[in-house]
Amino acid sequence: MTAVKGVKDGKALGPGEIPGEVWKVLKYEGYVWLTLFFNKLLHEEDIPQEWCTSSQVPIFKNKGRGTIDAIFALRQLCAKNRRAHKTLHMLFIDLEKAYDRVPREVLWWAMKEKCVPGKVGIKPDIQEEAPWCMLFADDIVLVGENGPEIQSRLEVWQQKLESVGLKISRTKTEYMFCDFGGLSSPEAIKLDGVRLPVCSDFRYLGSFIQSDGEIDRAVKHRSNAGWMKWWQVTGTICDPHIPLKFKGKIYKTIVRPAVLYESECWATKGMNE
What we know:
The chain has about 270 residues and is an alpha+beta fold. The chain is about 40% helix and about 15% strand.
């Protein structure tokens, strides 16, 4: 019963084309049928063939290095403004249930832009030049040199996003003030009249961006992530019966990536080594 009640409405249909809402409407009768059905599968140890197949749809991805490029661009902007003693204002926008809310018209437009045949829908015309506007999947960062500019752009983004069915989260959207100039203070950035929280660091695409331009938090997080992965595979790596070559492959594919992720974007100091 708990599992059925936890099914979200409006989700994509499976091969059987039965919406999850059906089981909620059937209530007790549906619970009984599902229980008998799954018990039968467990007893007979026979899985329906439809459950063993899936459809894979390749999606075109622009050339580049994905999240690393976005993180690098943002860190470089911070470094340049820090050297020039110029303040930066960053707004990390979070969308509520972005993947569930994306209108089909927007998906058709995106496919059209990638030369995939299909009808043309609504075109979001608010994309700005990087790195002043970083857009990666549903992660949006607006960067500016003054607060009023950020406030104005936020209002434009909110209007455009809501016009296509997307909504900005009022609790997860955060504002960061990078006081590299030392002569100003954080602005009151508001969303629907409510002041957004000011953060000293923000986790962006798995990397911690700090308002002081340092990388201490990011280095510590990578170190902890590496140790966590190490402890997950320590039983295998420390097993004397497992070949050394196989242990090396495990380390290279599980532990090392967790430690070195986005490290090429760091301008390290002696204290970080």
